[in-house]
Design goal:
The longest helix has 34 residues, at 2-35. By secondary structure, the chain is an all-alpha fold. The chain has a domain at 20-50. It has helices at 2-35, 41-61. The chain has two helices and no strands.
Length: 81
């Protein structure tokens, strides 16, 4: 059981790293489009869809009784303040 938990923890970390990378790429693309005075509507819609899908995946994985400290972030694509 412990071996399975370690693998699941590693997979969660890999997914968080991928989500963070996607977030950074999307933000860079939005910045570049804005710099070029291009329309950002399509890219912003894709970013919003990615965020929505990630939230749904995270919520479906969280056991209802798990303490908040053991739950995934509610919105890993949300820009940090």
């Amino acid at each position: 059981m412990m071996h399975k938990d370690a693998i699941m923890d590693e997979l969660r970390q890999i997914e968080l790293d991928v989500v963070e990378g996607e977030k950074q790429l999307a933000e860079a693309l939005l910045i570049e489009l804005k710099r070029l005075n291009e329309d950002t509507t399509r890219v912003q819609a894709e970013v919003d869809l990615m965020r929505k899908n990630q939230i749904e995946r995270d919520q479906s994985r969280q056991p209802l009784g798990a303490p908040r400290s053991q739950r995934w972030p509610v919105d890993p694509l949300r820009k940090e303040d």
